[in-house]
Amino acid sequence: MNRTFETRLKSVRGEIAAACERCGRDPAEITLVAVSKTFPFARIEAAYSAGQVDFGENYIQDCVTKMKQAESLNLPLRWHFIGHLQSNKIKYYDAAFHLFHGLDSVKLARGLARKALAGNFKARVLVQVNIADEATKAGIPAASLIDFLQEIRYMGGLSIAGLMAIPPAGATAEASRPYFRSLFQLFTEAKAQFHSVMPEFKQLSMGMSKDFTVAVEEGATIVRVGSLLFGERQKKV
């Protein structure tokens, strides 16, 4: 199991390096998040043994369980919450989370800020942008992003680290390119406008198994890869 993950990890990292070479970037700028949702903790242990540190989970209570298992073994993992966070689940979010990839409302921002202030930590968050204005997806409409950032920029307890988005499903990786390019433009504009009040605004999370190399070419600093690393997803019972 470990050897299989190690081989896959080497392949994905090689593709990231090749994408960086094509666009003149340093592979060290890219954080690879292994999407471990639904997989048992043993698979995460094997991934860590192969050199993977960042893991992404969609179900917060499952993630908390895995975090406790990692802590009991003194494994220095970084946990990214990449799912939708319901207001009634904010109580599970604490300082042990490295980054939340899905801030999509002022209500959620306020809830996280209150939890962080009460727990004396900073909740590092990425604002989710609905880059194609899809009715079925969460996120802040691109046209409303600047206004949204204006509203949350001074909330105590929050560290607004950047943006994330998931483009519409396309038949090819190239189909995602214009959406990644649009998100990078929004990211650049927001960073220029808010750099004095949000100096930590440096991360752009976009790209998954089918299109992560295109995302890297278009400016991603974080890519989220699951099936290429872990294989076929296990159904959550």
DSSP helix count? 8
Assembly status: single chain
CATH superfamily annotation: Alanine racemase
- Which parts are unreliable, with pLDDT below 50 for 5 consecutive residues or more? none
Shape: globular
What fold name stands as the CATH topology? TIM Barrel
Helix content: 25-40%
Task: Give the rounded overall mean pLDDT.
Answer: 95
Major sheet attributes: 9 strands, parallel
Order of SSEs, N→C?
A: HEHEHEEHEEHEHEHEH
Task: Please compute the radius of gyration using only Cα atoms.
Answer: 17 Å
User: In CATH's first tier, which class applies?
Assistant: Alpha Beta
In total, the number of domains comes to: 1
CATH architecture: Alpha-Beta Barrel
Give the strand content. Answer: 15-25%
Kindly name the structural category: alpha/beta
Terminal CA distance reads 23 Å
Primary descriptors:
single chain, 237 residues, 9-stranded parallel β-sheet, alpha/beta, 8 helices, 9 strands, TIM Barrel
Summarize the model shown:
By secondary structure, this protein is of the alpha/beta class. It contains 8 helices and 9 strands. 40% of the residues lie in helices and 19% in strands.
How does this structure look, described?
By secondary structure, this protein is of the alpha/beta class. The chain has a single domain (2-230), classed as TIM Barrel (Alpha-Beta Barrel), CATH 3.20.20.10. Helix content is 40%, strand content 19%. The radius of gyration is 17 Å and the shape is globular. The two termini are 23 Å apart. The mean pLDDT is 95.
